[in-house]
Amino acid sequence: MVNLLKKKISRKYYNYAFAYTLIFPGLIAVIIFIAKPAYDTFVLSFSKFFFGRNLGFIGFKNFETIFSEQLFITVLKNSIIWLFVGSLLSILLGLFIALYIAQENKLSLLTRSIILIPWILPDVLTAITWKWMLNSKFGVINDILLRLSIFENPYTFLGDPDTVIYTLVFIVVWRKVPLVALFLCAAIRSVPIEYYEAAKIDGANSFQKFIHITLRHIAFSITAITCIVLIWISSEFGLPWVATKGGPMDSSHIISTYIYQNAFEHLRWGVSSAASVVNIIILCILIISYLFVNKKTFK
Amino acid sequence: MKNIKPINIINNILGIILFIYILFPVLWLIFSSFKPSELLYATPVSYFFEPTVSGYFDLFDDGSHISQVTAPWRVLIGNSLIISLSTAVIVVFFASFAGYAFARIDFPGRDYILGGLLISRMFQGAALLIPTYQLIAFLDLYDSIIALILLYSAFGIPFATWICASGLKEIPKELEESAYVDGASKIKTIIFVIFPLAIPTFVTAGLWIFVGAWSEFAFASVLIDSSENKTATIGLVNLNDQFSASFDKVGAAAVLISLPILVLFTLGQKYFQKGLLEGSVKG
User: Fold this and answer.
1) At B223, which CATH number?
2) ipTM value of the model?
3) Are B240 and A174 an interchain contact pair (Cβ–Cβ within 8 Å)?
């Protein structure tokens, strides 16, 4: 009897050891290549740098520098537009598309099968394609708008400092909206059909059905996908960088392009790390709100 | 004759607009890559021309000036293939075993470790560039494709582990137990009884990791210096930055880069959607 118990306990610990062995390689990789660099970013943001050489601790000096820069204020403003206008448009347009592709007709099915294409193509390729299409001289978009007499003169979509960030938002929405649409489509299709039948008997019109049944049923999905889109749009770097490199005249920098340019073109590592910390703090706020929502949604 | 309702017409028009919105940029890219270079820079834009494949030929002609801008294109594609395939294999190998542990063994700290992995997935990006650059230099892996394989594997493991864990959970426990009764060892049971049933899950994870590594830009641009070690994505961006490179070559390069992804996507459509929904609902 005692022996059997002992065997059971040792078996239990054997199982634990087995589990830890299985997860060990992945865990180590994540610690070395993600957790450690994230920690290092904090340390670096409090260090003085001279052309990539660390000259020691200088307190909050780097943060004072970035917040006193006019450019960083532009960066924060652009990041807010990028993040919130981008997410809002992705969700609204995504919901609209989801309602369309959730139908059972040939065109909807066909659209559902190709909708992920913008999302799986590399982000730099998206940037290059749109940059080419939006070119003021040779771009097809200007050409069509001129031919239809919507524009009188070609417009430099990526060259106007006042509007360039919105052009970038438009491009990133094209890239992110398929994900939202497909996700919400799955949610819409999971609404039990009986609800609609019951509403029909009660004499509800389509708008009432949408508000009271569809929207209510997918509300949680909308909240969850909003958080996911916020996180994904905030981490986007390749697309804005390849499309404009922050230009013209630094008017389209968002936080990730600012970090990259300061680190690898201006070699201002301290400043770049301080901006990274600001970026990580924003991410943390988004992630915490996501986890909070997630808990409420799926428990 | 069936009478046509106006609502159906509106519905179909909306569908066509949506279809154009999604596909037009991709089609325009392909269209432009076959345009002769003198017509590419003509105003107004020309829509009718004799298609040419000279952009594609120039990319693969080692003597052309494009090959002096970037490395020969076959080298870049080769690098990208090596990196993406190795990353996918490494990640799926480790993630499958880790996924098994998370799915089947109730060990202390399981939920916290899994949560930590998921959160780590969200921290990848520009914020980690400088420390990663230092780390790679310290490991003496700067300008080596091994550095990219290591990094992409580390970045991919959390997501892949999650996908594998949720896939393996769906395999009935009884199968495993009956294998033990037959006297098979634990590790043998996992490899020969459980894993064959989870192949669709592994394919899903592998596809996602492959596409992620194939498309990655920020780290590849910082950690690789010499042109013969660059990836195709970096080559494309360098080509696009050159004023001397006409868009037929850029377009050709872009089409070649999207080709493997589009092929994988067409073949594995159902896996992609599965991964997307599972991966994003919960993480």
Assistant:
1) 1.10.3720.10
2) 0.88
3) no
Contacts of residue A40 in chain B, CB cutoff 8 Å? 130-131, 134-135
Is there a single domain that holds both residue B131 and residue B220?
yes
Mapping DSSP to helix (H, G, I), strand (E, B) and coil, where does residue B81 land?
helix
Give the domain extent around B27: 6-53
CA A226 to chain centroid: 10
Instruction: Please give the structure tokens belonging to residue B171.
Output: 């395999």
Instruction: Indicate yes or no: CB of A23 within 8 angstroms of CB of B18.
Output: no
CB contact under 8 A, B25 and A123: no
CA gap B213, B85 in Å, rounded: 9
- Among candidates B42, B113, B127 on the partner chain, residue whose Cβ is nearest the Cβ of A276: B127
Same domain, B30 and B76: no
Q: What is the rounded end-to-end Cα distance, in angstroms, of chain A?
A: 41
What confidence tens digit (pLDDT) does each residue in A32-62 have? 999 999 999 988 899 887 766 777 788 888 8
> How many domains are contained in chain B?
2
- Say how far apart CA B239 and CA B10 lie, in whole Å: 43
Q: If you average pLDDT over residues A111-127, what whole number do you get?
A: 90
CATH topology of domain A62-298: MetI-like fold (1.10.3720)
B165 touches chain A (CB under 8 A): no
What value does the mean pLDDT take over residues A130-139?
88
Beta strands in chain A (DSSP E): 47-50, 53-57
Yes or no, beta carbons of B218 and A138 under 8 Å apart: no
Residue B16 in domain = yes
Residues of chain B in contact with residue A186, where contact means CB-CB under 8 angstroms, are 277
- The pair phi, psi for residue B254, each rounded to 5°, is -65, -40
| Distance, CA of B138 to CA of A184 (rounded, Å) | 45
- Asked if residue B252 and residue B226 are part of one domain, the reply reads yes
- pLDDT, residue A238, reads 92
Q: Looking at this protein, which amino acid is placed at residue A94?
A: G
Residues B70 and B208 in one domain: yes
